[in-house]
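Task: complex structure prediction.
Instruction: return structure tokens for all chains below.
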Amino acid sequence: MKIPYYPGCTLHERARDFDDSARECAMALGVELEELPVWTCCGAVYPLVTDSVMDILAGVRNLSYASRLGDKVVTLCSFCYNVLKRCNNVMRDDAEKREKVNLFLRADTESREKIESYTLEDYEGQLEVLHYIEMLRDVVGYDKVASAVTKRLEGLKVAPYYGCMLLRPKKEMKFDDPEQPTIFENLLEVLGCDVVDFPMKTECCGGFQVVNDEELAVSCSQNIVVSALKREADIIVTTCPLCRYNLDRHQERMAERVDGFTSVPVIYFTQLLGVALGIDKEHLDFTDNSVDPINVLAEKSLL
Amino acid sequence: MGERIGVFVCHCGTNIAGVVDVKRVAEELADYPGVAYSTDYTYMCSDPGQNLVKDAIKKHKLTGVIVAACSPTLHEATFRRAGTAAGMNQYQVEIANIREQCSWVHRDNKEAATEKAIRTIKIMVEKARLDEALDPISVPMTPRALVVGGGIAGIQAALDIANAGHEVVLVEKSASIGGHMAQLSETFPTLDCSQCIMTPKMVEVAQHPKVKLMTYSEVDDVSGYVGNFKVRIRKKAAYVNRDVCTGCGLCIEKCPATTPSEFDEQLADRKAIYTPFPQAVPNKPVLDAEHCTYFLKDGKCGICAKVCPLDCIDYEQKDEFIDFEVGAIVVATGYDLYPIENLGEYGGGKYPDVVTSLQFERMLSASGPTGGEILRPSDGEVPKEVVFLTCCGSRDTESHLPYCSKICCMYLTKHAMLYKHNVHEGQAYVFYMDVRTGGKGYEEFYTRAAEEDDVLYIRGKVSKIFEEDGKVMVWGVDTLSGKKIEIAADMAVLGLATIPNQSAAKLANMLKIHADEWGFLSEAHPKLRPVESLTPGFYLAGSAQGPKDIPESVAQASAAASKVAALFAETEYHREPIIAVIDEDTCAGCRVCVSVCPYDAAEFDDEKKVARIKEAICEGCGVCIAACPSGSAQQKNLTDEQLYKMVSAALEV
Amino acid sequence: MKLRLTADMLVDEVLERVETLSGQKLRACYQCGRCSAGCPVVEEMDIIPSEVIRLLQLGQVDEVLSSKTIWICASCLQCASRCPKGVEFSSICDALRAIVLRTRLATPKIDADGLTRVMMSDAPQMGVVGALRKLNG
Ligand SMILES: Cc1cc2nc3c(=O)[nH]c(=O)nc-3n(C[C@H](O)[C@H](O)[C@H](O)COP(=O)(O)OP(=O)(O)OC[C@H]3O[C@@H](n4cnc5c(N)ncnc54)[C@H](O)[C@@H]3O)c2cc1C
Ligand code: SF4
Ligand code: SF4
Ligand code: SF4
Ligand code: SF4
Ligand code: SF4
Ligand code: SF4
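Output:
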């Protein structure tokens, strides 16, 4: 089964481990992530001002590419998912903006046709934008995932961190219950983990603010990490490179600020999935972590 | 054309005359065919105004009257009475609405308003031309009332009706009457013990010779109309012969099967055979088959049957159906709390120390699961700091319910106060948006909590509650100081919104009475008819109609009872004769009307092979008239011919 | 502290701009404060979110535009998600930032030095792009 896949810029650069592990897992589950032949950055943050037309163009452009490959598009990074889904909603529901954005798409095609043979079709919001987890649940099926598990992650206490962008705004994302989501937990249960239910799983890690005000991001991330630690999590899993970065990179700083802090590895859920599916750890790429996950996984004889 | 119609154009001070040229209207109508007399006057509804109408009827030998004035809901009755007094049939007096539907809405175009007034009156003249003299329909009255719901409102209504000398059937779905009030500890604003003031009333209603009490029963079917309802009550199988049972309680004591108690809000268990609480009325158990070992494990157990000294247990008992004829129905089905599961930001029920307001009420109750002590459900410790949250699910247009639940500000204040009386060294915090204390002695009660019991009121809505380090962490805010507030409390109490009892919607549907979009029963008029339903014969009492505290529930119940008593004061009931009628000569016997009538008022006469309308039931909705293919079904005084002429007048064709 | 309130203070071009740009009705906010109560970065703000809205309701645009708050918001949408009145403070915040940046009331948040630092950091690309879009316009 082939599914159109939008990786987004971060997964091609600083989150290659996320991209690689996701592709490996998909393969093991009989899904081929078909990367869009042409794509651009989605813009990373969805504009919250109402006069944004140019600002959603990038997102829509990618949707228009994807619509040539199928009726769905899968993505991994929470921010990409948020932007693509909301752009899709606008194109589907807001006739005025749809009209304007499509004018831009046409102009885009005209200006580029001279350079390369390249066209963008008008886009109407017809795609189903899926997060990789939704793909696992709805397209592959958790039962199929379960039967592909070769190494149950028994005894591994995993804290699933959702962050903001998968769940909010709730009316648009419709991803899961914004306050007590379970889709992530259900997946982890399928893998045999002990799921750690921690109250900070939907709180913000500080997001892009880390770029401007690192202290702010450290405080936010610290709340999350400490909360997971208090519930004795062995490992935290995320769906977003920025969350991963914030939760993982600042643990030394957290140790300075919190008495008795012990570090906890933060990995992508696809990496953990890969372990359960028995994928070679070289393909899962555990090299980019500040807090090394290998030890914890080895301790539980999972690697 | 023998009709002589009188037209009376009202100025309504300047309400009408300020916009509509009333003189011109009266003059133009004077020349309209069939109009024998036309005039205008400042206030038609005043005594001189009415006399003007009466005198003209006599003097000009009028056959019909049009009063061009305000909406018929205001003064139709007034002018019909005037007509009757002058010897005219009241159904030949018509109102042309030239105020609400003309002068008030066309203030900025006087010329057009005047034209519209003229045309509106002409329409009514066309109608009046063909109006027949009619008599109100009278139907016999069964002076027995059905009261549905045995909470404080239902009990009060039943008692008042019974004390007025009429029979009452009181139907309660659970094993005992009492409703939520029976669960409460002490009651604001006077802190009297709820059980103590309630039990005497429960006993009184159960023993009243005029009251037939049916607990563990539900309304199964209702047909008929005001004065003549037929109701079928389903007495649910209790698997106990409750007529013989003495309530000795041996069965309960020996029963090995338990399940969380509804009455104790899941804080304690009850047996599979149980009375909901010690003071239950009737104090006789019912057996809950869903949790009974005998039913779950094919006959294994049967202990209760063995121990019962009177052989009351009957595992074969079936639901029983009992029919009654009643003249009026009072609906007092009460309220429920908004489900805690809907408030995920407060844990959605997964934190044991975040409790609902009714759970806290049970803890406060001396007969409750903790014997009146406040103990944390998680570890049984006395909580040192307790946070109370107002508006949980209320006043939220976005995700929950838009309305104010009215009672929670007061009961949370009571909770905070009673907590302090229990745990002297404890601290109570109340997060509020507004403290709503509109009631006698209520503001004083709140002041007492804040000043004497040191309850700290914090103005802001809590965003999130979670558990951390054995504490209940509360993320709130104080908008008065502009600070985010974090409290590591021992317990939190949620003032959950009041919603209608969840079985009420189904009941309302069966009774064909209106409910608002949230399921609260709708009153006939928000100000002037607050205890009646729009459907004749139905009355509303207590929190089934909207969130209410005890004094209000009781007041409304007594008001509903007095309405019922007034209805029963007449031996006959009079209804408007503006209903459907079938022309037997042209009716083809197709029975379309029978199939479409929502009130089952159209019946088929097998002998004559024609349809007929049951006068006492027909509501005059007009469905059969629209459906009848042969045009045999007609509305009295709104016949096709009348409508055609009225439309023609409207279009001036 | 005193505020002399006049009717014309309440009709202001910039206020209208905030409402159209954010798509939010300022008067819809009934000041429950829940946006502030759940905000993860409220500690660092000089004016808490609900107060920002209150000040706008009172026509105090300048005070709000010069606040630190609008640059601290991380656009996590928690305020909007839990607001009982469906008011999205996050969108109001975006609108306020947009007004400041578009009318050049202040220079972009991340200056030339900052930019170099940002480019050199190992933060994920989406974080960098996001910050630049939110804070520099
Ligand atoms: C936590 C809390 C504390 C409170 N404290 C106070 C206080 O201190 N002072 C005060 O004045 N008020 C207080 N109240 C309010 C008080 O509980 C209500 O005003 C009162 O109980 C309303 O009575 P009711 O008869 O209308 O409804 P209910 O008490 O709800 O009774 C309705 C009855 O109808 C029955 N019923 C429902 N549907 C059907 C059906 N289809 N067929 C048959 N029977 C049916 C139910 O089983 C129930 O017995 C408090 C409320 C709460 C939640
Ligand atoms: S049969 Fe047994 S379990 Fe059932 S009610 Fe009787 S004693 Fe209880
Ligand atoms: S043992 Fe028999 S008489 Fe006694 S309470 Fe039970 S059913 Fe009634
Ligand atoms: S009564 Fe008070 S707590 Fe209840 S909804 Fe109204 S304002 Fe909120
Ligand atoms: S629909 Fe008309 S014709 Fe048919 S049975 Fe009824 S009245 Fe007669
Ligand atoms: S949560 Fe909404 S209503 Fe409450 S203060 Fe914030 S914006 Fe206003
Ligand atoms: S969007 Fe901004 S203001 Fe709202 S909760 Fe998040 S950080 Fe706070």
